[in-house]
């Protein structure tokens, strides 16, 4: 049966569902997210509106509380007015001045509380005016401010009249309380009650709006949730039904493949992942069909090839045996050569050490000869200086001899002059005689020293000549030592090169010996591998026969 590809299926079955599983899942997630977004938006807007209403309600509540305080303050002020009028009446009807003073004191004690209450009323009204923002609220507050502005001066007037003890002041207070003040109080209380009613109505409307909005948000949220559940359920049921049918079809093909039936081909229900899986399963059946046919053919070829390989393996085993024997003989000979080369290398190393020692001694001798030559030159220089010094001493001795001769002549003249002097010159004659003798001794001594100096100069000249000859001999020795050191250095280089060459030869023989040993081991391993390969050939023939039987068991 011919195999259908995925492109053929798409062309021939255009009515199939082309929505992939991935797209279905993304669609379900998108629907869920969209519905959740709608629910969240509705809830958010509703909650935000409720929150704004609650803030507005809180604002109105604060205004309402302050308005309640103003109403209470105005009622208290009305009470203070009546109390002040009653105190004034009692004071006027008092029987004694003391009683009148006591009543006046009670009235004065209420003045501070009265003034403070007026200030608190004004402060609270100003606060309400700054808090109210709506046009209707501002209009109502303006009415309250106007009524309070007209009502407030009456308190100041009544407060002043309450301190006046004259009966006329009491009459004036009663007149004001009976007419103008009460009317102003009623007007103020009326606008306060109207604004209070407006605030209560506004708060009630805000509460009703919040309750209604909360109910609406809850209903919309539940409806959106139910819609999401219904839509997602429909999409899920549709997708699961489609996937179940496709999986059942694929399981049918897999079951046929499990039973060895390769003749079955599936008809995909769609072009999604499951449809492509069915097409891939068809292609796998076709490929497996071709592979089994090829396996049967290959197993027959393997049987023929293993026979030929088995024979070749036996020949390779025989060759490996011969290589093993020959490599063993060559390895023994190479080992002997390596031993001889190592002996020569050791001798060359010893000779090199001896030559290095000779070179060191020759260098030391050359250094000693150089030092001796320098010392001889220094000695010759010193002796030459000594000859010059002896010549200078001879000149000095000649001078001393000349001085002694002159001294002797002077002593002789002194003796003659002393003799002429007679007795007066006897002492001088004695001294002159002593000087003459001393001059004579000095002349004799200097003559002897001059002879010694002359002998020393002759000896110095001989020493200088001998040292010059010694210097020449040492220089010749130094030249010979230098020549010997150079020759020994060349011999050392030659010996080192010979030692290196012999060492390399020894290393090379060791490597050759190791390579031959490796070759022998490789030959043994090859023989073992060939034997194992022959056994595997036998097993391969058996496995090939078994594979052929199993392949023939499939239904093609």
From TrEMBL:
Keywords: Membrane, Transducer, Transmembrane, Transmembrane helix. GO terms for molecular function: transmembrane signaling receptor activity. Gene3D superfamilies: Methyl-accepting chemotaxis protein (1.10.287.950). It holds the Pfam family MCPsignal. It comes from the Bacteria. GO terms for biological process: chemotaxis; signal transduction. One of its GO terms (cellular component) is membrane. Residues 305-534 form the Methyl-accepting transducer domain. InterPro entries: Chemotax_Me-accpt_rcpt, HAMP_dom, HlyB_4HB_MCP, MCPsignal_dom. Residues 241-293 form the HAMP domain. The chain crosses the membrane at residues 25-47, 217-240. SMART domains: HAMP, MA. Belongs to the methyl-accepting chemotaxis (MCP) protein family. This is Methyl-accepting chemotaxis protein. It comes from Mobiluncus mulieris.
């Amino acid at each position: 049966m011919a195999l259908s590809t995925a492109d053929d299926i798409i062309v021939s079955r255009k009515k199939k569902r082309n929505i992939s599983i991935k797209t279905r899942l993304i669609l379900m997630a998108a629907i869920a997210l969209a519905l959740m977004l709608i629910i969240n938006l509705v809830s958010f807007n509703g909650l935000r509106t409720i929150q704004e209403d609650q803030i507005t309600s809180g604002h109105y509540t604060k205004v309402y509380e302050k308005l309640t305080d103003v109403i209470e303050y105005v009622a208290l002020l009305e009470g203070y007015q009546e109390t002040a009028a009653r105190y004034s009446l009692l004071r006027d009807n008092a029987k004694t001045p003391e009683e009148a003073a006591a009543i006046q004191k009670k009235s004065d004690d209420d003045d501070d509380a009265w003034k403070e209450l007026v200030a608190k009323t004004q402060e609270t009204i100003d606060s309400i005016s700054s808090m109210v923002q709506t046009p209707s609220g501002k209009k109502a507050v303006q009415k309250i401010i106007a009524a309070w502005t007209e009502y407030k001066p009456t308190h100041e007037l009544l407060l002043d009249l309450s301190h006046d003890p004259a009966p006329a002041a009491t009459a004036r207070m009663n007149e004001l309380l009976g007419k103008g003040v009460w009317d102003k109080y009623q007007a103020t209380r009326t606008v306060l009650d109207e604004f209070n009613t407006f605030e209560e109505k506004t708060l009630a409307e805000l509460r009703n709006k919040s309750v209604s909005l909360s109910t609406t948000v809850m209903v919309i949220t539940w409806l959106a949730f139910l819609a999401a559940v219904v839509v997602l359920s429909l999409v899920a049921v549709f997708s699961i039904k489609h996937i179940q049918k496709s999986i059942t079809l694929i399981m049918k093909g897999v079951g046929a493949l499990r039973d060895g039936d390769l003749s079955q081909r599936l008809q995909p229900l769609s072009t999604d992942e499951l449809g492509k899986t069915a097409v891939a399963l068809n292609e796998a059946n076709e490929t497996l069909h071709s592979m089994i046919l090829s396996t049967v053919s290959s197993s027959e070829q393997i049987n023929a090839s293993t026979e030929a390989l088995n024979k070749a393996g036996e020949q390779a085993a025989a060759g490996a045996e011969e290589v093993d024997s020959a490599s063993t003989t060559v390895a023994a000979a190479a080992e002997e050569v390596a031993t001889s080369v190592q002996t020569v290398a050791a001798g060359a190393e010893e000779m090199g050490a001896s030559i290095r020692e000779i070179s060191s001694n020759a260098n030391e001798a050359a250094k000693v000869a150089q030092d001796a030559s320098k010392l001889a030159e220094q000695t010759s220089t010193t002796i030459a200086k000594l000859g010059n010094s002896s010549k200078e001493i001879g000149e000095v001795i000649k001078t001393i001899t000349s001085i002694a001769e002159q001294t002797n002549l002077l002593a002789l003249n002194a003796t003659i002059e002393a003799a002429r002097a007679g007795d007066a010159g006897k002492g001088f004659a004695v001294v002159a005689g002593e000087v003459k003798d001393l001059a004579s001794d000095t002349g004799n001594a200097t003559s002897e020293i001059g002879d010694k100096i002359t002998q020393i100069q002759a000896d110095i000249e001989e020493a200088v000549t001998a040292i010059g000859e010694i210097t020449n001999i040492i220089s010749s020795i130094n030249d010979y030592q230098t020549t010997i050191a150079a020759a020994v250095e060349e011999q050392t280089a030659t010996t080192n090169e010979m030692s290196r060459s012999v060492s390399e030869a020894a290393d090379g023989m060791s490597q050759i010996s190791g390579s031959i040993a490796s070759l022998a081991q490789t030959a043994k391993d090859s023989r073992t591998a060939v034997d194992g390969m022959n056994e595997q050939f036998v097993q391969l023939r058996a496995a090939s026969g078994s594979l052929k039987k199993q392949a023939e068991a499939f239904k093609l």
